[in-house]
Amino acid sequence: MEHSIIVESRVMPSYPVLPLGDVQFFFSTASE
């Protein structure tokens, strides 16, 4: 049960923090 809570907190953080891959994807799509 604790493991699933940790995974959810990483996927849906209480504050907007994106993985580096998502940040690069965001800028690549925004530049187009």
Characterise the protein shown here:
This protein is mainly α and 32 residues long. It has one domain. The protein is 66% helix and 0% strand. The protein is built from two helices and no strands. The protein is rod-shaped, with a radius of gyration of 13 Å.
Short characterization:
By secondary structure, the chain is mostly helical. Helices cover 66% and strands 0% of the residues. The chain has one domain.
Beta content comes to under 5%
Largest sheet: none
Query: Average pLDDT, to the nearest integer?
Result: 60
The computed structural class is: mainly alpha
| Structure summary, number of beta strands | 0
Q: Element order, helices and strands?
A: HH
Morphology: rod-shaped
Distance between the termini: 42 Å
